[in-house]
Amino acid sequence: MKKTLSVMLAILTCLTALTLVSCAKCKHVWDDGVDVIKVTCNVDGLKTYTCIHCGQNDSRAIPATGHNFSTELYSDNGYHWQECACGEIKDKEAHIDSDGKCFICNRKFYTGGLNYTEIDGGEAYAVSGYSGVTEKCVVIPATHSGKPVTEIAKDAFKDSYGLISVEIPDSVTTIKTGAFVNSGIVKLIIGAGVKTVENKAFEYCMNLIEVFNKSNQITVKVGGGEAGAYAQNVYTKYSGKSFITVTDNGYYIYEDIAGKMVIAYSGNEIELTVPDGVTKIRQLTYYNDTIKSVTLPISLNHISSGTFKYLNALERVIFLDAEGWVTENEQIPSESLLDQVTAKEYLTETYWRKNWMKN
């Protein structure tokens, strides 16, 4: 028995020695490693690598990357700044007024065409109406005539179909019932001071895509006329970054994994060409009395109901690809859509209440 144990011990000693010699001579080839502590902008990381030949481990410290601040400027009503992906900011500075815009970042401070009513015994103002037909992107000021703006009144922006975006300042505490009902708003920024959003404040805001809620005193709910009823994205942190881009000729385009969608148009062209690559045009995108023609790209595969209904001067629609269009299981003959006047009539009269899709 003792002899057997001695033999086994000797063998084990030899194997250990051989392994040590083997590792000492191994020309290590390390794998991709495993993060033990993930490196960040301001925290050193730790990564362990394993040799694919001998199995030896090697742990290495990874220095913090340091902040990578954006070259573009983020902004709110009062300031502009640079921001890292981790949320750290630098060079936060107050805007420099130059004819209602910041001289540095070109942000608009406020919008004309707003009507005001005194409230709280004359100590504050409410935005009570909107007549700025040419101003599609509204920035509400924090003060008016030296007094704070604290409320968006009932029906203030009701039926403002051409409205695209609204930024509500931190001074506002209350958004009244129906304040934005049936408006064309696409993007909404709710100020940090908002405490109350009354029921149906955003009822029928069917174009609403993005809501940035800076207030920690309210929750943007879905349904019942709430701001989130139609929005595809609701954010609780406003970084100044949007998933909506604006082309030079005034198209507002929202892009996600489903493709590029035209959600609004603010330009002044009479003959429009929808940008190539757009896959969808959202409902009620166009409200205009001057547009005469619209050219639709090959990439397009979805036209929402009512998209062209309110183009009162429209004369023709040009399909670059007229094949395969259906409206709720009804095939639309391509030869009909190749006739530009017939295509216009189909989209504004015959089939205007239906969604159009391409097979």
Indicate the mean pLDDT.
82
* CATH fold call of the largest domain: Leucine-rich repeat, LRR (right-handed beta-alpha superhelix)
List the quaternary state of the chains: single chain
Q: Estimate the strand proportion.
A: 25-35%
Structural class: mainly beta
Q: How do the strands of the widest beta sheet line up side by side?
A: 20-21-22-24-26-30-28-29
Unreliable residue stretches? 1-23
Give the number of DSSP strands: 30
Level of helix content? 10-25%
Number of helices: 3
CATH architecture of the largest domain: Alpha-Beta Horseshoe
Distance between the termini: 82 Å
Which of globular, elongated, flat, extended, rod-shaped describes the shape?
A: flat
Structural write-up:
The protein has helices spanning 2-25, 334-338, 340-350; strands at residues 34-37, 45-50, 57-62, 74-75, 79-83, 89-94, 97-98, 101-102, 114-119, 124-130, 137-139, 143-144, 147-152, 165-167, 174-175, 187-190, 196-197, 210-213, 233-235, 244-246, 251-256, 259-265, 271-273, 278-281, 293-296, 302-303, 316-319, 325-327, 330-331, 356-358. The chain has 359 residues and is mainly beta. The chain has three domains: 27-64, no CATH class; 110-235, Alpha-Beta Horseshoe (Leucine-rich repeat, LRR (right-handed beta-alpha superhelix)), CATH 3.80.10.10; 246-358, Leucine-rich repeat, LRR (right-handed beta-alpha superhelix). The strands form seven sheets. The protein has an eight-stranded mixed sheet, with no helix packed on it. Strands 9, 10, 12, 13, 15 and 17 form a six-stranded mixed sheet that branches. Strand 5 and strand 6 (89-94) form a beta hairpin. The termini are far apart. Residues 1-23 have low confidence and may be disordered.
